[in-house]
């Protein structure tokens, strides 16, 4: 027997998985996947090791690039200003903000490769004689990865382990992918473990699957639409399913956390449905804090002085809304970095002003921030994960479930019930209750609660807000609700068809 390998090609790196077989075959590239095979069969791996590997690799959610960048930068919540040569990177960040990306964009390619390679690893695991519970967890993870591909690109390639090297991966339409993903989750649910809230919840569970099903049905009108840009028609039966799935999550013990920032700490929280396992959310504060707000343990290089929010988004918050700001205090090693939005003068732990080492002036964060040519102090910074008490990265959390239920109730005709839910949340967050509930108000509430969590683009598309004018957006064309299929994927798999407009 000779060892062979299946390799997933990334921009600048290669990940390899080992297979075994008996005869030599030619190496061919198909859909950014190169298969080196010496036989016509598939040799199963160890399902426990394969599943642990999938969980260990969830750290890609922590990255400030790739999947996160596609879900966040094209929205009106975040702007990636270039400061001199810093964050220039050949325009990769600016084009995401301006909606001027193309099929060669590296973040688009890397996200595509990351998600599709992990989906194939799920295929391998399912063909490796897993237990019923392991198979259920694997299907839930495959659904998680595939739902991102469906959401971002509208087409989902799938390669199965029984395909020969000459076979191109089949490609599901958006509608077909929706049905496949829902089927995966429904088949997984009976055998998934019932897990309640925990400081680290890094295993697929019934609550995780029910959360994904709620998200899928809430966006079903988008995914089943004849036109990706809409208009969308939300069916009451689908909204009723959203409510039922959300209720199932609550029945497992999950609930809103009265302390808005507590779910992002290492402590226990009723909000934590599904978390990363190995990594830390370090990038979330490093990508936004100023260079001179450093001094943290093991971070001698200091933060990166990158992304900020837009004044338009910040000014939507009421002054008393506790999602906007929480004073942390002046902690040794952590300066005067508080939680929420950082604006105005910044201080060190001894309460003296921070001096910008480049401008030699006191560091004062401003509301205004240009997309290019920004001074080092421009832009309001956002801190949810704090370097003093951070926990694992939250991939799915109950606040999203709560708001999905309220939105589904509103769209399904129960405006009074939805309004009560939103006002209960706003009261908890010290915001003024609303007299009535509109699509606009619901969309804003999701922003208040879920800002900078990587789902802003999906929300904007569903609410018809994605192609609106906000700071520095250049391309308002409706086709940008989908990203282009990477050009390398198109070249290697003729079953893929480039999305309209690209």
Automatic annotation (TrEMBL):
Keywords: Cell outer membrane, Membrane, Signal. It comes from the Bacteria. It is found in: Cell outer membrane. One of its GO terms (cellular component) is cell outer membrane. PROSITE patterns: PROKAR_LIPOPROTEIN. Its main location: membrane. InterPro entries: SusD_RagB_dom, TPR-like_helical_dom_sf. Residues 393-502 form the RagB/SusD domain. Gene3D superfamilies: 1.25.40.390. Transmembrane segments: none annotated. Coiled coil: none annotated. Belongs to the SusD family. This is RagB/SusD domain-containing protein. The lineage of its organism: Bacteria, Pseudomonadati, Bacteroidota, Cytophagia, Cytophagales.
